[in-house]
Amino acid sequence: MRELIYFVAVTLDGYIAGPQGEYDAFLMEGDHMAPLMARFADTLPTDFAEAQGVSQTRELIDTVLMGWNTYAVGGVPSPYRHLRQIVFSRSRTAHADSLEVTASDPREVARGLKEEEGAGIWLCGGGALAATLAPEVDRLILKRHPVLFGRGIPLFEAHSYLPERFALVENTVFDSGVMFSEFVRVREG
């Protein structure tokens, strides 16, 4: 079965973006960038990866899920055209190759995708979609940056499900102060 992987940059105080969706305070340079581009190349926007000469193999992930605001931040019609892209919106539409906009229930979509053949499914953001999909998340990979936003879009917006437990499987700290922390869901029974 495929995994739903929530892979996201987050501040020390738990925000994935500022109040207006800004993310420019995240460190885009430093010793954490080479490992990011090596292991998580498929999470890079296609145009950026091509400009950097980074190969995108779709081995870790082959599908990306985004809320509309996360999709719109990039300002391009198909930011991850090397992947199957699914954008959730109840009122908007977009047309681009490998991009699907849907008003369907995100949990039902995620469950259906997990049953298909393929690589992992990347939950790119945002906080509201992450809260909706939290019960379906199998792996959580946080790129924790040594910054505080004070307010903004939280890692998970308020949700109403029972506490879920994750186990730490890897934690890498870089000289830049960025930490990659990877967790897997602890399944009962």
UniProtKB/TrEMBL annotation:
GO terms for biological process: riboflavin biosynthetic process. Pfam families: RibD_C (PF01872). Residues 4-178 form the Bacterial bifunctional deaminase-reductase C-terminal domain. It comes from the Bacteria. GO terms for molecular function: 5-amino-6-(5-phosphoribosylamino)uracil reductase activity; kinase activity. Keywords: Kinase, Transferase. Gene3D superfamilies: Dihydrofolate Reductase, subunit A (3.40.430.10). This is Diacylglycerol kinase.
